[in-house]
Structures are given as structure tokens and as C-alpha cells.
Amino acid sequence: MGLFSSSTQSRLAATEPAPITGPLIAMRNLEKVFETPAGRMYVLRRITVDVQPGEFISVMGPSGAGKSTLLSILGMLDSAWTGEFYFVGHPVHAMPHKQRVALNKEHIGFVFQQYHLIDDLTVAENLDIPLSYRNVKKSEREAIVGDTLDRFGMVGKKDLYPRQLSGGQQQLVGVARAVIAKPKLLLADEPTGNLHSSQGREIMELFKRLNSEGTTIIQVTHSEENARYGNRIVELKDGWITGSEGAVVR
Questions:
Q1: Which residues, in sequence order, are CB contacts of 210 under 8 Å at separation 6+?
Q2: Is the separation of the CB atoms in 250 and 91 below 8 Å?
Q3: How far is C-alpha 12 from the geometric centre of its chain's CA atoms?
Q4: For residue 128, what pLDDT is reported?
């Protein structure tokens, strides 16, 4: 059985476009640079990569390699770059800010190392946020939130606030919030960095299950163990892609 019930899937399916043909993501000669008194400092250099629907990619590399910057660009949280970036066929590089934000809200879920839950909202209210961005009626949103709470084993915590949860529980809510609207792409920045090893394994097993059900995942990680949950590893060093291992899903 999948993470979402058939009723939840049918509710969300009504808001989804046609299936993707071609790469989910295509980047061509993408660069990120800062101007400093000492000259130009490149954070990303000539990034050219395709991501197919259904892939689970782990981005690895030393600190300062540009991993988190790349993830921010993929999530359309950073617009100060050059080159070409296509997402679901949309030319992100040519889109105004408002359209990029709309594309992010419609198709992308983000899991952060620091959880980034809203402290003044309950678990259930945090889960409702992504649904509020989509054309889903309030009554249907409540049903989807209830279904998600059940699937993630959090029904008893729905009225609790983030400060009342453990780190592992907060990250579980973070993952549930990121995928509740069935995004085409799930981005994760060191998702187990603040968790104990057993909690980290639970999150990675959940990612593997989500990927098996069709969610495309790109994670940034320093952990070789976590990287092996994916089907492809992309290595960054000094802003350059220096290697790519594993099979490309097609």
C-alpha cells in the first residue's frame, strides 16, 4: 500500500497536469558567481545535467562545493545565476519571479536539515500549508491532512506544536509537509543531519518508499550510507560536477 489512500490521490489528481515527457529538469551551462573586491568567485561552474522523472539523486562533495546552492536554484529559491534551467519544460531562466514562485509552490517539496516548521502552528496546520497553495477546497484539504496524519503515524500528535516534538518527529512532519501535495520533485538538504542514526534510517527508508511510488528526489548529503539509497550520485567539487555514478532512470 502506498503512503496515500486512493481518495487522497484522486483529490490531488484533479489538480495535476498531464504526465511529463522528457526530462523533469534540464540545466545547461548554469553558473553562480559573486563579485568580490578580489575578483569573481564562482560557486557553480558550467553545470549541465538532466534529471529524469522517478530518479533519486544524491549530490555529494566537500563543504563549499556548491551543493546547497545548487539545491536552492533547483528549488527556485535563488534567482541570481546565469545559464539555462528547464523544469517540466518551463524555461525557468526566462520566467519572472512571480511565475517561478508559482511553479515552486505547485510542483516542489523541500525538506530542510533544520525542519523549518512554523512554531505557532500545530502539526495539522503545518501540513495544511502546501495544500492551501493549490486549488483544493478546505473540506478536501482537511481530509487529505487527516489521511496523511494516519499514514505517517501522527494522528495522536496532530494538535501538538513543533516545540513539543522530538527532532525525529519534527523531521517526519517536515517530510509529510513536503510531500502532502504530491510534488513532482522533492528536494532534501542534509535531511538526517540533526537526527540520531536510527531516526535517520527511518527518514531514508521513507524517502526510498516515496521514490518507489514515483516521487523524484534530489538530496544533498555527506553520508555515503544515505547516498546509497538513491540510484545516482552526482559529485561536486569547487562548483564543478566532477563525477556521476549510477544508472539514469528513463
A1: 3, 179, 186, 217
A2: no
A3: 18
A4: 95
